[in-house]
Write a structure and sequence with these properties.
- By secondary structure, the protein is mainly beta.
- The chain has a 22-stranded antiparallel beta barrel. A five-stranded mixed sheet has the order 8-13-14-11-12. Strands 3-2-5-6 form a four-stranded antiparallel sheet, with no helix packed on it.
- It is built from six helices and 44 strands.
- The chain has three domains: about 90 residues, Immunoglobulin-like; about 120 residues, Ferric Hydroxamate Uptake Protein, Chain A, domain 1 (Beta Complex), CATH 2.170.130.10; about 575 residues, Beta Barrel (Maltoporin, Chain A).
- InterPro entries: Beta-barrel_TonB, Beta-barrel_TonB_sf, CarboxyPept-like_regulatory, Plug_dom, Plug_dom_sf, TonB-dep_rcpt-like.
- Belongs to the TonB-dependent receptor family.
Length: about 800
Amino acid sequence: MAVTLLPLQLLAQYKLSGYVTDAANNEALAGATVVLAGTTTGTTSGSDGFFEFQNLPTGNYTLRVTFLGYGQAERQVRLSTDTNVNITLQQASLRTGEVVVSATRANEKTGTTFTNVDREEIQARNFGQDLPYLLEQTPSVVVNSDAGAGVGYTGIRIRGSDITRINVTINGIPVNDAESHGTFFVNMPDLGSSVQDIQVQRGVGTSTNGAGAFGASLNIRTLGLNKDAYAEAVNGYGSFNTWRHSVSFGSGLINDKFTFDGRLSKISSDGYVDRASSDLKSYYFAGGYHGKKGMIKFVTFSGKEQTYQAWNGVPEDKLETDRTYNSLTYDNETDNYQQDHYQLHYSKDLASRLNLGGAFFYTRGRGYYEQFKDDERLSKYGIAPVVIGETTISRSDIIRQKWLDNHFYGATYALNYTDEAGKLEATLGGAWNKYDGDHFGEVIWARYAGTSNIRHRYYDNTGVKTDFNIFGKVTYQLNDKLGVFGDLQYRTVDYNIDGVDDNNVDVTTRASFHFVNPKAGVTYSVTDNQTVYASYAVGNREPARSDFTDTPMNNQANREGLTAETLYNLEAGYRLRGNGLSLFGQNLGYTMDANYFYMDYDNQLVLTGQLNDVGAPLRTNIKDSYRTGIELAGAVRLNDAVELRSNLTLSRNKIRNYTETVYVYDEDYNVENTLQNDYSETDISFSPAVVSAHQLEVQPIKGFRTALLYKTVSKQYLDNTASEDRMLKGYQVMDLRLRYTLKPAFMREVEVALLVNNLLNKKYEANGYTFSEQYAGDPTRYDYNYYYPQATRNFLLSVGLKF
């Protein structure tokens, strides 16, 4: 591309520079963001307020300048010679609330690896699929869907790390389940319609609240301040009887102080896999008061889902003959869950350079999944045998429900200071939260129930977890070129489990952890549009609930003595933001990011094939494992007509020494002995060595955009043995997206959009699992592989009306 475009550059290249100052006192504003609107080019003002763009071709430009606490300014510039402009910013008459999430986000000064996904990108991809699918084009991301089409239960991996190792926050509030560490986006359907932007951090990042980031962080911010009133309605239909209905509104700024935003959504789908249906309902509401010195905002959102279970996957031997096979046939084999989120945010300017941001939150979750089980032992459910005459019935078909009923609440805060010169930024923050959850099971029907009653409770246990952290972080600009960053967090976790599980095993546990998590980074501005950075961070993470409860019975000492995991993370990279080319008299902006990472794990918990007393798989601490690689990302944009984005990840993901356990069973399926297989430098499961994403979007006529999206993922292994017998094949998938926008006189906008997924009709699987066993006297190893097939060619059509 460079060779092709080079002869087309215009010979005349000019410099655009200037100063950003406070309109009230004419003081320089250091760190103001200056961008050329409609391009990918931007910079920040120096300590004296100076900014500069070099090698710009002749043309018309719009300078857009923003700075926290000040109103945005725009300046039209006709560039035909070297030009200097002075821009003054007025202090904002109201606070917008950015301070609430600033403490958890990375920026150009923190030396970490991140990608910002703005609202425009989110809305372009949002056709009602789960939130992971809106991030599929970001570097190192792989997504999958149980039902095959992106509606219902979905998964996301970043650098091979699954959602239990990804720190997720919404407006700085932790979202990961305190016990499983997972985040279930199915409980927050259509959340993307109420999201302002998402920052995807890779590695330990700057995570401070919630679960430790052991691969990445998703920092989600919901809708910000919209000064103008609006109303929107979106309706969609697609393959597999997929429907989406969403209405939203915003009051705009009332009396220069109050705002209200709301949304109602309903999404349903039959799914690609048989009976893998979803019925999802959600709402979002926010109300805020914005003053000159402070802001208070209430945010609530909720999701209620019912999904037919498809989590068993498809056996390998049925992939060719019946890709949509679902082993479950009971008509109410469903997952039913509701999750309500309540957040109260507050920020206040305490002095000219000092502000405080804080939030209280409460998350309420409750629901169950229902299962039909045939020929179960009644004793397993605490039900006495049924005696009829001389016949004793000890087994029965039953229908059971497994329940979760939990409360999660707490507070976060961040005290932020910026010195007068803009060189020093410091934050003192922390969080406290508590999880209180009940786990219990009920038998709601049995063919032979004896003297038991309906909703007979056969197990009951509770989990109570308290999490506290305090952190301090500092960014200091040593000079116009060099800046340093430091962050130190202290975190404590206390976890208590009481009761018995569904196998009638006593899971009583008392465990506590104390973590110190340091981070440090450095950035150096090579030129105004080129930056190099490096950072080193340490993250610690406690075991998940299943690591405690699945430990063999009568082994409480081992359960409470489980070892936490530690990650040592090195990141080093280069960023380029340019605007120095011209094509056919049009401005050509470009960006490039190159990053090297090394993630060294100590005592990472992985599956090794070991089972506990009742056959549940166990995770075991592996002493040494690592991920290392490079991430490349770039974009080229020709005004608003053509944009090409591309990213590529090449990685090596290894366990240095790994021992696999395979059980050998006798003819009565009792364990006769175990086999130990040793591996060296073996691949970590679900960690593809190559991941790439590419997007070409063209606007041939005003209002009509067409985009091709291409995703490639190399082969992955289902376990940690790197065996071709237990593997996910690599795949390449192309999507086509069409959007046509009209602006009629009687409304703000009408958009008709079409997304064709898997345009080339590829058959592929994006997730799966495996287990193996052998039998006495038989040297053959039997592998049982299960896969989650993704949908072949399918479409989603959407019509949006904006008023």
